[in-house]
Specification:
125 residues; mainly beta; 7-stranded mixed beta sheet; 49% strand
Length: 125
């Protein structure tokens, strides 16, 4: 299982970015998928998650601004980020795991076994 993120960059506040996570070695339709972020000096936090049945979960801080989705034909997970704020600045990681998760566990980093290398997002004010 290999995950490769892309799409990060530097934007001004209010701007948008779309992150991509290409999966190799397995079909993402069979895995719980999530986006996480980690800012310097802070713990890794869950941003958005996608169950195998298509249900989505978002952190309160990104609700209404971020959208998680997947393209099963391309085996790619996306995170569309709109109305970006300086506090969204972080390294963003995608993660995958085959085990069923509760609504609380889906945004818990400790419940995911496979991780990408991360892509940096920087939002300036």
């Amino acid at each position: 299982v290999q995950l490769v993120e892309s799409g990060g960059g530097s934007v001004q506040a209010g701007g948008s970015l779309r992150l991509s996570c290409a999966a190799y070695g397995y079909g993402i339709s069979w895995y719980w998928m999530g986006w996480f972020r980690q800012a310097p000096g802070k713990e890794r936090e869950g941003v958005a998650a996608l169950d195998i049945d298509g249900s989505t979960t978002y952190a309160d801080s990104v609700k209404g601004r971020f959208t998680i989705s997947k393209d099963m034909a391309k085996n790619i997970l996306y995170l569309q980020m709109n109305s970006l704020k300086p506090e969204d600045t972080a390294m963003y990681y995608c993660a995958a795991d085959p085990n069923r998760k509760t609504s609380i566990q889906v945004l818990g980093a400790g419940y995911y076994n496979y991780w990408g290398q991360g892509t940096q997002v920087t939002v300036s004010s």
